Amino acid sequence: MIKPAAELARKLGNPCTDSELFELALTHRSCGKRNNERLEFLGDAILSFVIADDLYTRFPAAREGQMSRLRSRVVKGETLAKIAREMQLGDYLRLGSGELKSGGYRRDSILADSVEAIIGAVYLDQGVEAARAFILHWFAGHLDQLDLNVSLKDAKTRLQEFLQSRRAELPHYELISVEGDPHDQTFHIRCQIALLDEPTEGHGSSRRQAEQEAARKALTTLGQETGA
Questions:
Q1: pLDDT tens figures, 179-205
Q2: Which residue range or ranges hold the DRBM domain (predicted)?
């Protein structure tokens, strides 16, 4: 059962006083023409700006390339989906019947887009400073974990370099399945490496994202990093 948008607004500290605008931010395009796509577009731009501004202040010695990689790490879909789950956002999403049946309220891409749409709604309703405060509150934990001294290489690259250092065979990534509509798919990938008895699996809204998750799980199993 879909929970009322007003309940979520209260949980978030009523960041948007326009109840209709806030509910629109929770309405997926599968519901029809009146949906959150335009708010998502706006929120994506505001999120990128606010995070870039915070990184500029937080890391005064960082180079442009380093800040770009840090920003990409923070604003990526996986991070947004994780924040959405912290909000329990899936319980409040307005989805069409097809998306409801296929479990769209659990899908990373839909959750991530909805976070951006909420940011867009807060901006339109309260202005950029309110949107900034909302973003920095919900992204605080992820921003505080950033460290310029930690490698910014992606999981697949780190796994490949680790295996090469051990003179082991490189990983083999296999597509297990693809679920969902063509415009909103979930990819399932299996990663097999010789140093592990069992393969690791990952899923995501793109094949690359799923491969990265499978690689991270392999690194974790190999004791090369803590859980994602």
A1: 987 777 899 999 999 999 999 999 988
A2: 154-224
